Fold this protein.
Amino acid sequence: MRNVLIADDSASNRELLHTMLAHFGFTVTEAVDGLQAVELAPALAPALIVLDIQMPRLDGYGTLTRLREMEQFRATPIIALTAYAMEGDHERGRAAGFTDYVTKPIGLKKLRQVLEKHLDMRSQ
């Protein structure tokens, strides 16, 4: 089973994402903020990382920067997930190095589309 790492400071958002990703057959590891995500990621070697943008201690952009500095995460799909969708945010996220930029709330169908876009889902 492939592992996905999600980092979000909202327990309810983590629970929802966890349930949705588990539905697609992924093993899910949760981080409460960006620093914890950076600490957990190397040992997990996740197939995909989902980062909330607004988190305490280390936001999604800072987390992305630290992860992309590590060789093993330069090609890993890292998805920004945020409630904020102002004009230019998607472009800013892509320019920063996010693989994709998705706004909340995210439904099961949309999540499946994002996963299929960035992962081989044939075995899922």
